Structures are given as structure tokens and as C-alpha cells.
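chain below, 236 aa
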Amino acid sequence: MRSIALAIGLLALIPTFATAEILPQTEGYSVEVTFSDNLQQRMASINGLEQRLEARFRENRHYATSPREAGSQRFAKSRTEGTEWAGERLIGDVSDFTLDNLLEALVAYNVNRAAPDFEGRIEIHIDELKLTNPSIAFLESFQSYAEGRVKVTDADGNVLFDEKVRTNLVIDSTVDTSYDGPELAFAETDPSQRAGPTLAYFVGRALKRAWPERKSEIVGPVIIRVSGPNERVILD
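prediction:
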């Protein structure tokens, strides 16, 4: 009995780790995400920044750090009430808001809509990710784009799609400040300063090529205005 009690006590000392939470379920298939060495070396900084910005946005619906900076953006929460934002639609906890989880969630969201019976594996490799006005200098470019490779394999091992993909972000915006449609809603400065819209556009375009007969069910980003008239959103 003492040995059993000792074993139970030792088990209690073993740390447990919660699995990362993405909200769209991946039932019957898996999503594997990898990055180039250059991106992977900077991933801790990129993920840390994304988590800070996501936490700030979920709290205030803007990125300003003080009421003075916010100006009329302090009304963004009430102005956009009813909008279902992409970050919260895809990832439950801010601590899980990383680029690999974001890509997995973007894939799952669209596959569940367009090919709910799919079984197999989807591999996403990102070689390059660039934004026009990022806080991390390594990501800066004259346009926001993503480049990589996407491979889709069914449960029997048949390769259904395996191609290099490069997408320059094309912005689709709406004047609806209470948007709850199928597209993935991002704030107006996100296309130039955060990874979400560019990666959402990349995943959407890639999956439309993988499932061309179901492309009407595959969605990308839509941009929502959160600032007041003649104002800009502040992001530091």
C-alpha cells in the first residue's frame, strides 16, 4: 500500500501541460505547420508581439496604449459591437495565439466549411512572410505577402495537391461595423502590421486551388474600420 501511495504521490509531482486550443476542430485529419529557418529563428519575438497586440485588441478593440492616444478610437468597442473578430473565432486563449496555431486554425476553419468529410493530412510550410509596416524590422517589405508550400494527402496516402504558393495580400473591406458573416474579420491596420490577414489570404487562396470545386465555401480576410472619421489607428 505504501508503494502505491508513493507512486501516486510521484505522479502528482509530474507537471501537466494543456494542449493549445484552436476553436475549429480537426476531426479526421491533421494539420502540420512548419516555417523556414529564418522565420523560425524569430518566431518567439513574432509570437510574443502578436499575443500582446491580440490581448490589447480583445480588451479595447484598438491598439492605443492610453485614452489620449486612442482619441475617438476609445469608442471602437461600442462602434463595432456585434462583429465576430477572426482572432476570437479561431483561437480561444491569447496565450495560444501563435503563428502555427493561427495557421492550423485558418486551415481547419475553411476545411470544415468546404470539405467536412476530408480525412488525411494538410501540410503548410511558410518560407516568407512580409508586411508593409510591421513592428519587427525583419518582416518589413513594400507589400504584404506570404510564400510557401501546401500539400494535401488523403487517408490512403494519395497526394491530392502539392504546390508552391505565393500570395500578395488583396484587401477586401466592408462598411459593416457589426460584421458576423463567414469571412474572417480583422481591424483596418492589421493588413500592414499584423500577420493574420496575410496568412488568412494565403490559406484561402491555397485551399481554393486544392479544392477548386468548393472554392465558394473557402473564405479569406475582411477588413473592418475601427477608427473614427479622419483618424488613424495607433499601433506601437
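The radius of gyration is 20 Å. The chain is about 35% helix and 20% strand.
thats it, cya
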